[in-house]
């Protein structure tokens, strides 16, 4: 029974000793100050134990809103010793003003004995220390391709020189896209203009944006000044180099145009071509017209769209032109001919060593006018053995290396009248097979102009079958 009482008394004596291992006291020096000054508190810590103890000080305070500093973060106390810690809280440019704010400070020792003290403090607004934005200049509608100028008027309301920082930010959906700042030295009671060159991104979307700005003095500023502006849409095109595929039969021109802007627009691109390529164009893909000696490629494109153009030219008509002209000429000659010629070669005797043929030439005036100075020419090749047995018209015969040439001077031939010429020839012993006789040529004069017509070539089979 006595043993239990002793243990209980010892426990009752030991409990206050553990709780009172160290004691805390604090003194409020400044709990309400103007921003720029410090809240000031003094903590006094007493070691109630009979041996040395270490006490740590800690806190969980947002360092973006407040700057904290103290004379010590740990104290070492001998038995019965006490020490004081000066604790300061400074404002920042983001510190809430004009409201009472609680601050909790924690104390602990190695034995795990924890204590805390909650303090309250307030920061007042120091308006006379803040530079004031009195005006600005900026466009309501902005072209992102061009550098813009922002002018901010900043006033110093104090009687001293202020080294002020002027800052702007451009936001969209609460996200800061661009920002910049400048330092300017403000004379007492004066206003200065601060200039910024703002370059947006080249492809900035055509939407609404927020511009906000303010001036600082040692980190302290009034509320943001805000305004809205709109980035306008624009259209701008990337035109590729024309791709030209060309050969003897024609040419193909291909071109791509892309709208690299942010809005819809119309573009027209001229391309030089030869007039003949315009004339022989046979296929186009895209809006293509011909103006002032050029082809004009036109497209309406939204942002990011590409238009493809194809222009095809054929040279086939040019390649066929000589043949077409020749055909036209032959048709013209045939339609305007004055004389028709026919020649018939009939074999009279086909022998093993030689053959005899009869030639009949018919010349007819198919015009309605009298033809004068009509002359008929026929040519026999060198291997013709003998020519003779003429009809009523006897020719003049000229012999040379090209063969035997026969010339008949007919004179005048009346309209629709006909002249018949006949003669015989023998083939050489050495020539057997098929031979060609050049066509008969007729010359004449009509209305003072000389004309000529040549008949068809004759194919003759010589020798005995």
Overall description:
- There is one protein chain.
- The protein starts with a helix and ends with a strand.
- The protein folds into four domains: 2-124, Immunoglobulin-like (Sandwich), CATH 2.60.40.10; 128-231, Immunoglobulins (Immunoglobulin-like); 237-317, Immunoglobulin-like, CATH 2.60.40; 338-462, Immunoglobulin-like, CATH 2.60.40.1510.
- The strands form nine sheets. Strands 11, 13, 14, 16, 17 and 18 form a six-stranded mixed β-sheet that branches.
- With 465 residues, it is mainly beta.
- It has three helices and 37 strands.
- The longest helix is centred in the C-terminal third of the chain and has 20 residues, at 316-335.
- It has helices at 2-19, 275-279, 316-335, and strands spanning 22-30, 32-34, 38-47, 53-59, 66-70, 74-77, 82-91, 100-108, 114-124, 132-137, 141-142, 148-155, 162-172, 175-186, 191-198, 208-217, 220-221, 225-231, 237-239, 243-247, 250-259, 265-272, 281-285, 287-291, 294-301, 306-314, 339-350, 355-365, 371-380, 384-388, 396-400, 403-413, 418-427, 433-437, 441-446, 449-454, 458-462.
- It is rod-shaped, with a radius of gyration of 59 Å.
Low-confidence stretches: 1-19
- Per DSSP, the total helix count is 3
* Average pLDDT level: 82
**Beta-strand percent range:** over 45%
CATH fold name of the largest domain, please?
Immunoglobulin-like
Radius of gyration: 59 Å
The CATH level-2 architecture of the largest domain is identified as Sandwich
Shape: rod-shaped
Helix share of residues? under 10%
User: How many domains is the backbone divided into?
Assistant: 4
**CATH class identity of the largest domain:** Mainly Beta
User: How many strand segments?
Assistant: 37
Class per helix and strand makeup: mainly beta
The biggest beta sheet is recorded as: 6 strands, mixed
Span of the ends, CA to CA: 168 Å
- Oligomeric state of the chains present here: single chain
CATH superfamily of the largest domain: ntegrin, alpha v. Chain A, domain 3
């Amino acid at each position: 029974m006595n043993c239990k009482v002793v243990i209980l008394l010892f426990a009752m004596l030991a409990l206050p000793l553990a709780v009172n291992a160290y004691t805390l006291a604090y003194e409020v020096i400044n709990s309400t100050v103007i921003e720029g000054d410090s809240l000031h508190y003094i903590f006094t810590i007493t070691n109630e134990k009979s041996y040395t103890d270490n006490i740590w000080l800690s806190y969980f305070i947002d360092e973006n809103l407040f700057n904290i500093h103290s004379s010590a973060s740990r104290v070492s106390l001998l038995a019965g010793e006490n020490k004081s810690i000066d604790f300061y809280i400074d404002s920042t440019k983001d510190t809430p003003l004009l409201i009472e704010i609680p601050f909790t400070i924690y104390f602990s020792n190695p034995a795990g004995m924890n204590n805390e003290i909650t303090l309250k403090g307030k920061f007042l607004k120091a308006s006379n220390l803040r530079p004031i934005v009195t005006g600005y200049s900026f466009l309501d509608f902005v072209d992102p391709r061009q550098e813009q100028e922002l002018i901010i008027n900043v006033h110093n309301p104090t009687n001293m020189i202020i080294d002020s920082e002027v800052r702007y930010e451009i936001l969209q959906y609460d996200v800061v896209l661009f920002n910049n700042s400048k330092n300017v030295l403000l004379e007492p009671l004066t206003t200065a203009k601060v200039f910024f060159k703002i370059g947006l991104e080249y492809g900035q979307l055509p939407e609404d944006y927020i511009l906000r700005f303010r001036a600082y003095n040692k980190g302290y500023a009034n509320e943001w000044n805000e305004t809205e502006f709109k980035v306008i849409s624009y259209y701008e095109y990337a035109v590729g180099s024309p791709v030209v595929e060309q050969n003897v039969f024609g040419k193909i021109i291909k071109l791509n145009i892309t709208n690299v802007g942010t809005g819809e627009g119309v573009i027209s691109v001229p391309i030089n071509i030869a007039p003949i390529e315009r004339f022989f164009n046979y296929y186009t893909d895209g809006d293509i017209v011909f103006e002032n000696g050029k082809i004009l490629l036109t497209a309406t494109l939204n942002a990011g769209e590409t238009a493809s153009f194809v222009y095809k030219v054929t040279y086939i008509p040019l390649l066929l032109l000589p043949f077409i002209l020749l055909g036209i000429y032959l048709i013209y000659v045939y339609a305007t001919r004055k004389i028709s010629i026919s020649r018939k070669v009939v074999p009279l005797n086909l022998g093993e060593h030689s053959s005899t043929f009869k030639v009949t030439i018919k010349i007819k005036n198919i015009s309605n006018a009298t033809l004068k100075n009509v002359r008929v020419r026929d040519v026999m090749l060198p291997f013709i053995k003998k020519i003779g047995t003429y009809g009523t018209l006897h020719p003049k015969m000229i012999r040379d290396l090209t063969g035997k040439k026969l010339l008949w001077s007919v004179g005048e031939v009346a309209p629709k009248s006909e002249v018949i010429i006949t003669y015989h020839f023998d083939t050489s012993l050495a020539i057997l097979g098929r031979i060609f006789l050049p066509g008969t040529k007729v010359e004449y004069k009509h209305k003072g102009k000389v004309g000529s017509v040549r008949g068809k070539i004759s194919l003759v089979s010589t020798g005995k079958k």
